[in-house]
Design goal:
1 helix; five-stranded mixed sheet; mainly beta; globular; 1% helix; 497 residues
Length: 497
């Protein structure tokens, strides 16, 4: 994803970072003097966007908002989520004015989740901001249960930070699939977006996906099949914003195997990790794409509880330049926790990737997705957890790592609890969770890397019903709750190169 860098001006006051609005650019690590002068300060403003949950009249949706306690924040602040609106009456000087939206979810204090719910098929997308003590690490989960019909099952998504570029390997316009890319605009001016599709033979030419306008404080669901001439089983969706910013997520609905939200893959990189494949997965499909003009050749390995394993028959994956590659890995985990680790066989070529995971058999199947994600370099949070049906997977693909996991107080009561784990290098562990004492309602899980190598994480929610193993998986990306801010007296010219 692209990030905007703000100019830094020497002054006598500390600089506040704004997540989702701008990122501070840090100097190259080789400049030791600058690195020593930088201090980590909490971000002061965060923006999140939640897509419209469902068009089904049978949909039941729960929202959970949570901010972990962060030292050094201001004592004041607020966090609000409100319905996205389209432009309405004309404001001053002829400019369009957005409708005023009443907040639908407003937390009272950091460290305790707050929940809300809605039902039916006309629930809108949500636009939210958090300031002050609520901004660092603010996380919102949208979880929807659909009892029947296309996409029935459990659908979950972390509400996203607005950005200017997103990659979604794993979408489809096959006969049984109904996939939408949801675009939500948090700003006062319209955003202009291009939606590009790449199949097994390369780019799918379509003028329909060019120059899509997303109105101020509005949301647009785009049916992917309207952008192609025929069905494509494996697609990579590229959302590129010409002007403005949007939040983006793909809703993948299957007539036979349920459905879920497909979140964006992490930025293209030469090595990627896809954490938290369920132990009982009956089918795992890997979809990958490289935006490079060069082919990518990858080693495929499974980080199991005992170490890295090379799947027999799927030792490597070849991705042709600007073409989507896909391979069926079968019941890869065979009853054990696992994560997929993809590394270059030779020359490193950046790529994106995701897994389509199926649980169950026959008519009782359910689907979820695991996009490649970045490491938890400091802290990450998953919210909406329940006393039963929650699994946290931690992966250390390189060196061993020590990880602290905190279960927050419950949304309706309970006492926070903490455990520390050591994850051996090259392994994945489904850890025993520190469930809050006296838990009522849902709770948040905050993961912090204490020491050692890189750590990757995902959370699975399961809500089986009527023989269907309904589930959803969310990866935990670093919350970027703090930012390195240089000393005010330092020469900042290096930051503007």
């Amino acid at each position: 994803m692209n990030r905007t860098t703000i100019s830094l001006i020497v002054g006598t006051t500390a600089l506040a970072a704004v997540t989702g609005f701008a990122s501070l650019s840090t100097p190259d690590a080789s400049d030791a003097g600058t690195a020593k002068a930088a201090a980590q300060l909490p971000v002061e403003r965060t923006s999140l966007l939640c897509p419209a949950p469902s068009t089904s009249d049978l949909a039941e949706t729960a929202y959970t908002s949570f901010t972990p306690v962060t030292e050094g924040t201001r004592s004041d602040g607020k966090a609000e989520l409100a319905a996205a609106t389209t432009e309405s009456a004309t404001g001053a000087k002829g400019k369009p004015k957005a409708k005023t939206a009443k907040p639908v979810l407003t937390p009272k204090e950091p460290g305790k989740p707050v929940t809300g719910d809605t039902s039916g098929g006309d629930s809108p997308a949500l636009v939210g901001t958090a300031e002050g003590k609520f901004a660092p690490g603010w996380t919102v989960q949208e979880t929807t249960e659909v009892a029947a019909g296309t996409g029935r099952g459990l659908l979950g998504v972390n509400c996203t930070v607005p950005d200017t570029e997103f990659w979604f390997p794993g979408a489809s316009t096959a006969a049984d699939r109904t996939d939408y890319v949801h675009l939500t605009n948090p700003d006062d001016s319209a955003a202009v977006v291009d939606v590009e599709l790449y199949g097994k033979d390369g780019s799918l030419k379509s003028e329909v996906g060019e120059g899509i306008t997303v109105p101020p404080h509005g949301s647009e669901p785009i049916l992917l099949s309207t952008l192609t001439d025929g069905p494509q089983a494996d697609l990579t969706v590229h959302v590129n914003v010409r002007s403005g910013r949007v939040g983006a997520a793909v809703q993948a609905l299957d007539a036979k195997t349920g459905g879920d939200w497909l979140a964006a893959s992490t930025e293209p990189a030469g090595s990627l990790v896809l954490p938290g494949i369920p132990k009982d997965a009956t089918s795992v499909r890997l979809i990958a794409f490289t935006p490079s003009d060069s082919d990518a050749d990858l080693n495929v390995r499974l980080a199991s509880p005992t170490g890295l394993i090379t799947p027999v028959g799927n030792e490597t994956l070849h991705i042709k330049a600007r073409m989507t590659a896909a391979v069926d890995l079968g019941d890869l985990t065979r009853g054990e926790a696992g994560s997929l680790v993809l590394t270059p066989t030779g020359t490193s070529v950046p790529f994106v990737a995701a897994l389509e995971v199926v649980r169950g058999k026959g008519a009782n199947q359910e689907t979820a997705f695991i996009p490649a994600t970045g490491p938890v370099s400091a802290r990450a949070t998953a919210v909406g957890n329940t006393a039963k049906g929650t699994t946290l997977s931690l992966t250390a693909p390189g060196r061993a790592a020590q990880v602290k996991v905190t279960a927050s107080a419950g949304s309706e009561g309970g006492t926070a609890a903490t455990k520390t784990y050591t994850i051996k290098g090259g392994t994945t562990q489904d850890v025993e969770l520190p469930v809050p004492a006296g838990l009522k309602g849902t709770y948040a899980l905050t993961v912090e890397r204490v020491s050692g190598g890189a750590v990757y994480a995902s959370r699975t929610l399961a809500a089986p019903a009527d023989g269907i193993p309904a589930f959803t998986i969310q990866t935990l990306s670093d919350d970027r709750g703090t930012v390195a801010v240089p000393d005010a007296e330092q020469d900042l010219s290096v930051l503007q190169k």
